[in-house]
Queue: 2 jobs
Job 1
Amino acid sequence: MLAYSGRGHFVVRPTDFNALVRENLPLLEVALPKNVRLEARLDPDLPPVEADVGQIQQVLMNLVINAAEAIGERGGRVTVATGTREVAAADAALWQASGQPLAPGLYVSLEVSDNGPGMDPGTIDRIFEPFFTTKFTGRGLGLAAVLGVVRGHRGALSVDSAPGRGTVFRLLFAPGRRETGAEALGVASPHRAAPVTLLLVDDEEVVRDMVSEVLASEGVKVLCAADGARGVEIFRERRREIDVVLLDLSMPGLSGEQTYARLYEIDPSVKVILSSGYDHQEATRRFGNGGLTGFIQKPYRPQQLVAEIDRCLRRTAP
């Protein structure tokens, strides 16, 4: 609900939307049905945007998955595009959904389109309402959260759709300052003097697959557990081999908090990076000063994960 109101906690920094899209394409492709093709059209001259990377990733994920679900079983195409757009004072349609005016000028655009069945005007009028959904299951919070993130970034959002001709979501954000080199791409991992083994405890298969693939390219060995109980079992058997644990907060069975407590009982020096879709303050409040070594908010970029692992390996838990 905080996201919907635009009052969520944002941590902004100059963000390259092209890099963000490229880095998330493998994760998005794994999450989509095989009958839906994902394409990207990226403007090579795109300015950066002052944005919260995790929040924009969530927006991208929600819009792409919604587009794929709209296409349904017949199959089709979802396209993610970036670009720039000059906004004039008369362009009222650009902020029809976000309900806040934009000053005239140049803006960075992020678009997600599909060639699905489209929506009628009545549906378009309600898609951003909390708890409204056209699905048989679900809570209908995805697009409401998207709207809140756009509002929180003082951006604009519009929807173009009609029955039989697909849907386009267009998001506009004010450009920020440019970064150069590695700064724009994220923090590069330093050379590691020794091999690293990470235990990943997460109930989402797509997360386990993505993390394993990303870290394999960094020379990190990943041991996977689909729940807390299995994670504790692996840690008990191989704790001398494991350098750091990446632990999901919300899981069926043992929660992240309960799993951490059992890992700590086995080895009080265990290094644990907590992972959650909640922000840092909300996710870690129940741990107090319990010794978490790090935190990363879902969804995260590969560079963020690698940097957080390297940071945690260089320090001890407080």
Job 2
Amino acid sequence: MKILIVLHKSYSLPVISPVYQPIQVGDLKTIDQSYYRDNTGDNISVKNKTFCELTALYWAWKNMNTDILGLCHYRRYLGNGCVWKKKQERLLKEQDITSLLRSSDIILPRKRHYWIETRESQYVHAHHAKDLQVTEMVLQEKYPSFLPAWRHTLASRSGHICNMFITRHELFSEYCSWLFDILFEVEKRLDISSYSENDQRVFGFLGERLLDVWVETKQLRYVETPVINLEKQKWIKKGALFIQRKFHKTNG
């Protein structure tokens, strides 16, 4: 079992269990010699600015062969509901993961709810509508059986985000094969040369939506766990940005 902790800068990582292993993404100076690097072996490290944590996902797919694989972030982890415990004590341990996967196919973060808009309108207000349009075209051509779940996902008001999950190697490999086949084709067709630095992270954003599409279409049994953020959340700032995007940003 290996759960990769994706990071791009020096950070005081929590001590959890040996199954967690940091992986440094991008072509930056080495942070720690003991960390995995996404620019070794078969990799797409050069795409990190547009694929975000998915370059670590690709690296794990191509270079790891453990029975159970997962992905989390240096400050965000899958955890349990024991709210009376300290944050670091709530992060999933090996025995927790093993137990959860006995009755489910995949462990996902608890859904984020958007309440006042759909996942499609939220994306369009925050990024570019053509990202979704091109992705739908690719799905129509390559994986039409996934279109109902794609449209259902966009119409929903909640979803699993952050590209965080834990599953068995067979499903992990199957998902990555499907996901990157789609994203690489979208990448060929989508001109992002005029995008802002944030909007250029488009393939990471699309990956978040496509994970739910895959889970729904494959009818996987999933279990949700809380997302444990080791940093304080700036909810007022997040809320202000949400409103600003909704009423002031218009993208094609």
